[in-house]
Amino acid sequence: MIARASSDAQSILEQLHAVSEQRALRAMDPLLDARVQAVKHFQHARFERTYADLLADPRYGKAARFFLDELYGPRDFTRRDTQFARVIPALVRMFPKEIVLTVKALAELHGLSEVLDSATGRALPEEGPLSAQRYGEAWRAVGREADRERQVMLTRQVGMALDAYTRNPLLRHSLRLMRGPARAAGLSELQKFLELGFDTFREMRGVKPFLDIIVAREMAHARELFGTSEGAQPGHDPAPSKVFTVRESGDESAADKSPDETTN
Prior knowledge:
mainly alpha; globular
């Protein structure tokens, strides 16, 4: 048990170290930093276009915004990551294995995303504004198709796990009780992130349709950029081919319908 906890903690901390390492490399190279920031803002804008329907949906809007801003946003998460690293040894000792594995997946997603963003920034053509064509060229120059797929699957894994935890009222109550101690210990950023994620997923009343749409669209987008989808136009930034809506009951999705077939 102790050996497993130590191994899990080491794995999580290694991913957070990878994130810190990428930040340090960018800090020493202002040009790289500017390119990576351009990549992050470009991706953020692309996500807003691709998931405009989810962002506007009453059931899934908050969750889409959480993913967009808290997991893939261009904000500097240094303070949150520092607080996160401080509690990892205690977390892996005190929390159930399932939660620890989710934290490991979240850390891996964070580390992988930062590494891929740095690689894409380095691969950008040296001159000119960042366009869909230039972004696509950099994406293909980096390659790492398996890592791009891993990024999407980790997103799904974390989302499904968070959804399962929201069904535990004791866990939410415990999280509320941690507000004071977290503030006193200098962990307010981490506490805010955890509470926001918990409440957001609880309000969805089931996350699978939401995550299915994200996985389908991100995999289609990757195939488009790699030029492996039928009729692909490398460098083209495709709009979602299907519109998502939720019927008034809130129990069903219409992700399999065309825009003309969907109803609010």
